[in-house]
Amino acid sequence: MLERKCEEVKGKETREVTKEYTATMVTIIEITGKILAKIKTDKNISLAYLHGSYATGKADGESDLDIAILAVSGLSAVERSSLRLSIMTQFLQVLGNNAPELDLTILQDTPILLQYNVIRRGTCIYERNRQERIEYELSVERDYEDECPMLDQESDIILQRILSKSR
After folding, report:
1. Contact status, residue 21 vs residue 2, Cβ threshold 8 Å
2. What is the pLDDT of residues 86-115, one digit of tens each?
3. Angle, alpha carbons 68-44-71 (nearest 5°)
4. Measured between alpha carbons, how far is residue 6 from residues 1, 25, 46, 121 in Å?
5. CA distance 130 to 134
6. What is the pLDDT of residue 24?
7. Do 53 and 59 form a contact (C-beta atoms < 8 A)?
8. In whole angstroms, what is the distance from residue 67 CA to residue 124 CA?
9. Which of the ends of the chain has fewer CB neighbours closer than 10 A, N or C?
């Protein structure tokens, strides 16, 4: 992966790219630790996942940091929105200006496809209760399986529209 990164950055010496990549990974480890410290103190958060390019090891200097949070059950949509804003504010205070852009998602407010991708391709970085995590992930898998035929049909329709317009 590091070699591919080195090839992608034209005009830089391999040594500089290696330092940049290593610094980025160290920074993400530090940032994730700071984020976890904040998450653990918030009683309204049940689960947190790191997903996207940092979770898959494909991050570069332009990547944002994708965090998905499952709020405790019983919070209204307005309360979850307020929670998201509060967490974003706290993260910005902790991370400062040198951190990558943070993309924070509340899982209850996202489509099932994103929830499924988060639990399948992401990494759970915090769980308040293991059983609750297991139940949530099983619920997402069941819902995804139920909606999968409809999602496939929607994808086919979109693809057909795109192909018909390109002719």
Report:
1. yes
2. 988 888 887 777 677 889 999 999 999 999
3. 35
4. 9, 15, 39, 25
5. 6
6. 52
7. yes
8. 10
9. C
